[in-house]
Amino acid sequence: MIKFFPRKLFVFKYCCLLTVFFIAFTNVFGQEGSVPVEISGKVISSNQNPVLIKGATVMVAGTNTGTTTNDKGEFILRNVPRSVILRISHTGYLTKEVQVTDKELVIVLEESPAALDEVVVVGYGTSSRKEFTGAVSSIRVEDAPIANLPNMNPLELLKGNVSGLNIGATNTAGGEPSMIIRGQNSIGGNNNPLIVLDGVIYMGSLSDINPNDIASFDILKDAVSAAVYGSRSANGVIAITTKKGKSGKPLIELNASSGFQRWQNKPVMMKGEEWIKTVNARNKFTEGSTDWMKSGELDNLSKGKETVWLDEATRTGIVQDFQVAVSGAGDNVNYYLSSSYNKNNGIVKGDDFDRISLLGKINAKITKWLEIGVDGGFSKRDYSGIPANIAAAQLMSPYGVMFRDSLNNLEKYPYTQSLINPLWGVDDGTRYNKDLRNNFRLNSYLVVNVPFISGLSYRLNYLINQDKNQSGNFNYETYYVAEGEGLARYSPTVVQGFLTSANGNIDNNSMFSYVVDNILNYKNTFGKHSINATAVATRDLMRYQQENIIGSNFAANGNTILGIRGLHKSTTQRVDLNNSRRANIGYLGRINYAFENKYFLSASYRKDGASVFGANTKWGNFGAVGLAWAVSNENFLKDNEHINNLKLKISWGQNGNQGIEPYGTLSTVANGPSGGLRYEFSNTPGRIFYGLIQSALGNANLGWETTESWNTGFEAALLKNRLFVDLDLYTSKTTDQIFVREIPVMTGFKTIRASMGEVDNKGIELTIRSVNVQKSDFSWSSMITFWKNRNKLVRLYGEDKDGDGKEDDDIANSLFIGKSLSAIYGYEQIGIVQESDTEYMRLTGAEPGSPMYKDLDNVDGISAADRKILGFGKENFRLNLGNTLTYKNFELYALITGIFGGNGFYQKSNTAAYLTRTDRFNDNMTSKSYWTPENKSNTYPSAYYSADGRFLGLQSRGFVRIQDLSLSYSFNQPWVRNQHISSLRVFLSARNIATFTKWEGGDPETGVTVRENTFPVPSIYSAGISIRF
Amino acid sequence: MKKLIYLIPVVLGLLVNTGCKKDSDFLSEIPESFYTIENAFSTSQQVDQVLISIYSHIRDLWANTTETGWIFNLRGNGTDLFDVASIRRGNSFNNYGSINADNGTFYEVYSTWYYVINRANLALYAAELPQIQWGSDAEKKYAIAQARFFRAFAYRNLGELFGGVPIVTDISKTPQFDFERPGRVETYQFAIADLESIENDLPEATAEGGRLVRAAAQHNLCELYLAMGIQLKAEGKDGEATTAFTKAVGFANKVIDGGRYSLIKSRYGSRRNEAMISFPV
The whole model's pTM is what? Predict the structure, then answer.
């Protein structure tokens, strides 16, 4: 069932607009094929001696209606609309889409040597996959089952589908998951891949791209694929291609889905009675005593009234996704217009998000030599609202007082020592928050095919992206109600006293960026040689401007009725301005050469300049070379039945990373009110003098983090194109890491940013796709992806203070030479101290019920010398399995993902899973059978054991998850066609359905423990419909 | 109509290619909303702002308004000045068993005085910049005198707490790693030379309550000579020690006999008329 939005009026207008939009387009471009007809035809090959193709699949595009050809290559489709598009596919041939014009069709399929002739985006152009020498993974989204899933962010489409690409979990409404390709290269800098949108570097937010508008992704993982992007390529590239019109009849598409979110494995906190027992135990109070409880709690206790705070702070979330798109293509014009609305009310109360997005793409071939295209996008995101505090909800006393009076007004301090009601400020009018983000995007290009020189073309890209964000907060005086008991605290006269504390801010910020690419391309074939050469000159600029208006103290004004719009009435006002600019220049040359379609070479060289680097190191050079050998095109394999395609490849290259923000190399100054240095002389009290200091020591030599990497592997299509195996092996070395390093403070500064150190990565990536069953009404295909990355810190600051001839580790930052990043260093726990462990207690002073640690240095007692590396936060490997089954009109897709630990990998401290005692004497906790003299637990410390910093409670985060599930049904019954519907599909889908893990607390992937204010990763169940006219 | 379309590439081309900056200009970083050391100084008032930052810094060290742990230690926590009960886990500076060279307090205390030195050097550097126009020669001299006073004050504190410390007399533009430690006497001597050179540039009294006056320098000179004398005596240089002690007496006399200062003999402050409380001892 689709719930109606709360903003009815707005939606109404919106729908009207879309309807007009539709009608206009259908009238202009569409001549509806209304009467169902019978279509028959035959399918032949394009060889010089054409053969009839039997068993080819003929589908009505966008539906599950279809048939296969008989022994004579013939097919008949009954009861289909007159003007449909047919999609004809057969293994060994290129899939073809045909607009039905005649009722008798002859469809010619072109042979594809390996059915791999996809086009991949390689940066400043495209390449055919078979000629490509690097490691790239492509994911088709359009019409794929993953598009049915409730995707709020483009990255969610990629989760678990691409070997070597780790996509994190989304746990907030409208949130963006983390992404990392081939492991962590940079210790201190950015590890995010570069985003390329429709061929141009995209510097906006991914959340502004609607997942519904995406046709495909290409993930460039190795050096030769990414090197064309020079200084920003070291973390790989995610290239997004948006949908465009298809030749034939204009298509009107309507997609709607709606669903709900649940918190799976919600932690269960202790109920009242057990909570009282443990509070007494952990504080060594008299058993059964309740004199430490506040009167409100005692009242609830006597009435037997308990509150499950976690239930109060959460709800069933809602997800909604509506999209309308119109697209089409003629001989010279191609257009795609889309409009979407997304809404997500998260599981946590107050965590709300909605987004409206529009995308219009038009391109036209004006003349033989000129093509022009313009894409315009708009998106408006609204994150306004204050979410409930999940941590407080887990800590709060079960007998705490939710409401202070009978009118259901909240009590601010329900009572667990100074803990504020988790719902305080959410919608009680004590706080206000708005967070609006508008994005405008214009991507225009022109292509000139130079008429005089065959194969020479010039392309100009010009992308502008403008973000206009407005956010603000206001804390009313009521927010500051004091801790204590009784209603007097809420009386107007008392609350009025907090007008001095009332405060707010309005933050207007904007980000403008542009990219200009001048691309010269020459492509030609001379006999056995073919050449594709590209030269690029590119510039981009990003400009950020922020105006933050801060006001506090409304005592003189008398009230805060104007709220955030009355900031100018406050006594203390301040304006903070923050501008920054970031610019890049690149010059690139690339050549792709192929000999006899067997041997391929690609080489590129980029000279790159970036403003963020030191004055002496603005420029860097990045080169890459790749080789590939299409073994299956050699005579000895050419007609092999089992090996249909085999390509070996190797590549080397250097990529850069900008591990620094603008102005990070400058000697900055802090002064004025924002500098924070103030003084008053005694003769002029109240007159403030502001100080001026140099706040950082610049480093004009700060440059690139350089990643040099090797990649080798093969791509194979086997067993009559039923089995596809891609394997990549890689190593990389990232040097000149940008660190904040310590320097002698006699310079006046403790630290400086410096380039030093080295991190190596190596790994393996395997993708196996198989077509297990392919029959006319049943097919089953699978995909397995596996990847494993190993990380090693090779060099750090180059210091050897202890004089052992080996470089020193940086223990404070958990950086160990020769080890993986994210090492966990500490004391090895060997159970719990029992009363019988007298010797251990004598040596360490530990009490029974405390954790027991292993003595490694053989010196009596436990000291810093007993520490060692206990494990690593990094995962061991990832393994995912996807299956797609189609039976008649049904299609089922399931994805199981897993991140695996083992060998000490993928561990994290989870003290909350073991401890009963917490920071406050009366916090709530999850129930556990803690150590007592009677219950000699060797796992859980005693209730009164207070964590000493040595205790880590390491747990493995390894898990297997049923990540995605989608079931769709396509209608092709006569009534569908009678309604002029060319395709009608309904689907059910679910995400994050079940997780199998030993990790206790929250989601293992985000590594959440109980009692943290990290929002849960929801399970999402949705139902939807997709109609095409 | 159709012909107009041909204009699009031309217009686009113009849009993109006009106003193109040279590569080096395009990549140069000029912050718009904050200063760097290159463009921060244009008036003499800004030189004074550097001095204000030192006044502010030293007030924070003495008053410890932020209740920072290591500043409590600097002010005497764990000594016979005052102590904090051991049950306050965060304040363990009274437990001498746990104090070693790795204790962060020492690094913070050492650093805080080099911050003062760095700012004093920055004020001295800025005062001599050609673009700075001073109202009068005396104004400039007073700015320099304050900077030198604070620098000397920092070296005196460092000398007392750590012995000889590296003498830094310029601002740093690049990180330096080859500092050398002179002796304690040299450290005191540097501070004494700084103070003696500006003694007469400091006014006897100022309009702004709390600004440095001459007697502050004389008082510090007295204590510095005293400290240096003690160190010289410890090094067996009795003759030099005696000279230093004599100097100390001389500067003490300047303050005591200057006629401006005297001991407090009666109650003062806004509560001077409240009843006295006596504790039986």
Answer: 0.81
pLDDT at residue A203 in the model: 85
Q: Which residues of A touch B209 (CB under 8 A)?
A: 681-683
Mean pLDDT of the A546-556 span: 95
Between positions 563 and 582 of A, the ones with CB within 8 A of B are 577-581
- Cβ of B280: how many Cβ atoms within 10 Å? 3
Residue with tokens 């911050």: B115
What residues does A106 pair with on adjacent strands?
A42
> Could you tell me if A9 lies within 8 Å of chain B, comparing CB atoms?
no
> Cα–Cα–Cα angle for B161, A811, A867, nearest 5°?
110
B-chain CB neighbours of A584 within 8 Å are: 27
CA B190 and chain centroid, separation: 15
Q: Which of B15, B54, B56, B98 to mutate to test the interface with A (most CBs of A within 10 A)?
A: B56
A433: closest CA of chain B, how far (Å): 26
Predicted confidence (pLDDT) at residue A192 exceeds the cutoff of 70: yes
Residue with tokens 């100097």: B247
Of B9, B24, B107, Cβ closest to residue A370: B9
A539 CB neighbours in chain B (<8 A) are 26
SS3 B212: coil
| SS3 state at A506 | strand
Closest CA to A191 of A583, A732, A652, A659: A659
Dihedral (C-alpha) A546, A547, A553, A554: value to the nearest 10 degrees?
-130
Closest residue on chain B to A693 (Cα): B50
Please answer whether residues A958 and A998 qualify as being in contact, where contact means their C-beta atoms are separated by less than 8 angstroms. Answer: yes
pLDDT tens for A88-144 read 877 667 777 777 766 667 787 776 544 445 788 888 888 888 788 888 888 888 888
pLDDT at B11 over 70: no
Q: CB-side exposure of A192: number of CA atoms within 13 Å?
A: 14
Pairing of strands A643-657, A1019-1028: unpaired
B56-63: long-range contacts (C-beta < 8 A, 24 or more apart)? B56/A677, B56/A678, B56/A679, B56/A691, B57/A677, B57/A691, B57/B112, B57/B115, B57/B116, B57/B119, B58/B116, B58/B150, B58/B153, B59/A679, B61/B112
Sequence-ordered list of residues with C-beta below 8 angstroms from that of A724, at least 6 positions apart, any chain = A715, A716, A717, A718, A767, A768, A769, A770
Instruction: For residues A283 and A254, give the distance between their C-alpha atoms in angstroms, rounded to a whole number.
Output: 62
**With an 8 Å Cβ cutoff, is A365 touching chain B?**
no
pLDDT per position as a tens digit, B97-141: 666 766 788 899 999 999 999 999 999 999 999 999 999 999 999
A448 touches chain B (CB under 8 A): yes
How confident is the prediction for chain B on average, in pLDDT? 87
Whether residue A14 is predicted with pLDDT greater than 50 in this model: the reply is no
- A-chain CB neighbours of B172 within 8 Å are 697, 747-749
Please state, in angstroms and rounded to a whole number, the distance separating the CA atoms of residues A428 and A103.
67
Distance between CA atoms of residues A753 and A703, nearest Å: 10
The label of the residue with tokens 């305080």 reads A424
Instruction: Show the beta-strand stretches assigned E in chain B.
Output: 35-36
Residue of A nearest to B11 (CA): A446
Residue type, A719: L
Residue by residue, DSSP assigns A749-786 as: -SEEEEEEEEEEEEEEEEEEEEEEEE-SSEEEEEEEEE
Instruction: Show Cβ contacts of residue A695 under 8 Å, excluding neighbours closer than 6 positions.
Output: A668, A669, A670, A675
Residue whose C-alpha is closest to residue A134's, from A143, A122, A144: A122
Tokens coding A833: 């101290």
Residues A603-661: tens digit of each pLDDT:
999 999 999 998 888 998 999 999 999 888 888 887 788 888 899 999 999 888 887 88
Q: CB pairs below 8 Å between A and B: how many?
A: 172
Taking alpha carbons only, the member of A197, A409, A300, A264 closest to residue A1005 is A264
